[in-house]
Amino acid sequence: MDPVGLVSDEQRSIMSDFMARDLEEIEEKLKPDTSVITFLYLRAAGLHFRLSAFFDSPDSPDYQAHLFSLWQATSSFLECVFDLNKFASGLLPHASNYILQMIVAAGFALLKLLNSFFADRIKLAYGRELFLKAIQAVRTISVATNDLPSRLAEVLAQMWKSGGSGLRNGHGHDHSGWLADSLQLKNRCRMSMSLVYDSVWRWREEFQAKGRGNLE
């Protein structure tokens, strides 16, 4: 275990696969009486622990398999959010803080995946559509000007533009910006939410490096 409490890559891989099977068993037990809200939280839970893929070493034998599982969990969760909002109009503004956090995390996950070597292995146009809808979902949850959801949506939009809008995928593109080909995290002390903190921190550094002032 390293200084921030993370288990080794091998142990994490075993735990991830074990938890995936555990979640599948829970879904099977709940399936006869699963409400749309319960199903949404099951999809959120699946995404939550699949975010651990960003802690994996690129040299891990299951690295790309875990990235693909993350992609599936991200798209499945977001599709569930969009479907629920479509069939229960007006429900999204009342979403819990946890669902907001997971939509934001899904947005950042897509941001990294679509601007990395892994973009070659997924449907890029579909991923870009999911990302743009995720931003709209975060804005829908906003209830006041400049509240947390509206600020997070703006950060996601700015990072999308500066990161290549899903077009920087490892084929000769310039990787000198904050969103490099590597999917590794610099900030790893927030467990599953490390992705969000790491992404915002990199955006903040780029913002200040371009002389746009202090964000405090």
Q: What is the secondary structure topology, with strand pairs?
A:
Elements: H1 9-30, H2 36-50, H3 63-87, H4 97-114, H5 124-141, H6 148-162, H7 194-209
Helix pairs in contact: 1-2, 2-3, 3-4, 3-5, 4-5, 4-6, 5-6
Q: Give the count of helical stretches.
A: 7
Give the mean pLDDT: 81
Percent of sequence in beta strands = under 5%
| Unreliable stretches | 170-181
What would you call the structural class?
mainly alpha
**Biggest pleated sheet:** none
Cα end-to-end separation:
35 Å
Order of helices and strands: HHHHHHH
Tally of extended strands? 0
Q: Approximately how much helix is present in the residues? A: 55-70%
Radius of gyration of CA atoms, rounded to a whole number: 17 Å
> What is the molecular shape?
globular
Keywords:
mainly alpha; 0% strand; globular
Explain this structure to me?
By secondary structure, the chain is mainly alpha-helical. Helices cover 60% and strands 0% of the residues. It has seven helices and no strands. Helix 5 packs antiparallel against helix 6. The longest helix is centred in the middle third of the chain and has 25 residues. The radius of gyration is 17 Å and the shape is globular. About 6% of the residues have low confidence.
